[in-house]
Write a structure and sequence with these properties.
Radius of gyration: 28 Å
CATH class of one domain: Alpha Beta
Distance between the termini: 107 Å
Order of helices and strands: HHEEHEHEE
Helix content: 40-55%
Largest sheet: 3 strands, mixed
CATH topology of one domain: Histidine-containing Protein, Chain: A
Amino acid sequence: MKTDIPSPPILFSIGILVLCLGGCVALESGETGRGFFDDRTINARVESSFFEDYVISGRPVSARTVYGMVLLTGRVEDESERLRAEGLASGVIGVRDVINHLETTQSAIEYGERTMRAPGNVERSAGGSLNSDGR
């Protein structure tokens, strides 16, 4: 008894169809076996959202994406901008988590003031001698 085997062009067409449908499913879920490509795409979308935002645009903010987790670094003016950048990043499709390491200019100024006033700092007095008590 003879078994009917589909011709090679038909098998090739079926193979292409399966690959195309599999690719569509992977694109919708945001996950493929190629995390590097996906992370680059996610990272580009996050940075694009920063560029398009009228508040965050122009700030020295950068994003680094690994397995869908976005690390934000850089400096913004205040806490509201810090939270705004985090919200923009978390709104991008494919982002699983945002780790916000953005510094605010206000916190840097406050930290500097605390450091300058810390007890035991050695400062020069008006006469040029060194005082350990800041006078």
